[in-house]
Write a structure and sequence with these properties.
The complex is a heterodimer of chains A (117) and B (111). Chain A has 117 residues and is mainly beta. Helix content of chain A is 0%, strand content 55%. Chain A has no helices and 12 strands. In chain A, strands 2, 5, 6, 10, 11 and 12 form a 6-stranded mixed sheet that branches. Chain A has a 4-stranded antiparallel sheet with strand order 3-9-8-7, with no helix packed on it. In chain A, strands 1-4 form a two-stranded antiparallel sheet. Chain A is globular, with a radius of gyration of 14 Å. Chain B has 111 residues and is mainly beta. Chain B is 0% helix and 54% strand. Chain B has strands at residues 5-7, 10-13, 19-24, 31-38, 42-50, 53-57, 64-68, 74-78, 87-94, 101-102, 106-110. In chain B, a hairpin with a 2-residue loop joins strand 5 (42-50) and strand 6. The radius of gyration of chain B is 13 Å and the shape is globular. Classes of the chains: A mainly beta (117), B mainly beta (111). Chains A and B meet through strand 6, strand 10 and strand 11 of A and strand 4, strand 5, strand 9 and strand 10 of B.
């Protein structure tokens, strides 16, 4: 069975601090996708990044960076120089092709990030 | 390009009633998935539709059903509502195999 664990329930930082959100996943499939979504108070899930299981190249996009390590089944997300607008719940998700046309997403419980001014 | 739209945004129903939620995907997206979000269970997959056919289903009772129309718009229906059905229902659209884009959700309260 597949599972996504986000051990950090809540994180509180002061603006301009760097923060890393942890994500550990479990699956027996060799082909899968990993995602990060952000959910601001408005409720809409905002897509941040997708990574497939064959691409362990880490990525930096502006203030965001991602660290994918298959050896430890981790897909961590770092925000550099955090801002108040980054305050949201962040979800890590595992996508598996279960015979449908798309990937069935299994989400972690989410990490509430609060960035204080 | 307009995003995923969901109607209504808020809904209050009584136990035993039924409810229909609507989702209009991003133009050109033919795959629509539905998720339920509750404080206790988190985000859980309900079902996925593509080309008017249900392609995948999560572990929910038969009271939860859905359909997709030829224009890719989708509806989900919950019959015989229970208090535990109170949740944020999120719809996501995508092209097959590509990342899913979510709508703002419909917040359903069952009293």
């Amino acid at each position: 069975a597949q599972k996504v664990t986000q051990a950090q329930t809540e994180i509180s930082v002061v603006e301009k601090e760097d923060v890393t959100l942890d994500c550990v996943y479990e699956t027996r499939d060799t082909t899968y996708y990993l995602f990060w979504y952000k959910q601001p108070p408005s409720g809409e899930l905002v897509f941040l990044i997708r990574r497939n299981s064959f691409d362990e190249q880490n990525e930096i996009s502006g203030r965001y960076s991602w660290n994918f390590q298959k050896s430890t089944s981790s897909f961590n997300f770092t925000i550099t120089a955090s801002q108040v607008v980054d305050s949201a719940v962040y979800f890590c998700a595992l996508g598996l092709n279960s015979g449908g046309s798309n990937y069935k997403l299994t989400f972690g419980k989410g990490t509430l990030l609060t960035v204080n001014p | 390009k307009a995003g995923v739209t969901q109607t209504p945004r808020y809904l209050i129903k009584t136990r035993g009633q039924q409810v229909t939620l609507s989702c209009s995907p991003i133009s050109g997206h033919r795959s629509v998935s539905w998720y339920q979000q509750t404080p206790g269970q988190g985000l859980q997959f309900l079902f996925e539709y593509f080309s008017e056919t249900q392609r995948n289903k999560g572990n929910f009772p038969g009271r939860f059903s859905g359909r997709q129309f030829s224009n890719s718009r989708s509806e989900m229906n919950v019959s015989t509502l229970e208090l535990g059905d109170s949740a944020l229902y999120l719809c996501a659209s995508s092209r097959p195999g590509i990342e899913q884009y979510f709508g703002p959700g419909t917040r359903l309260t069952v009293t």
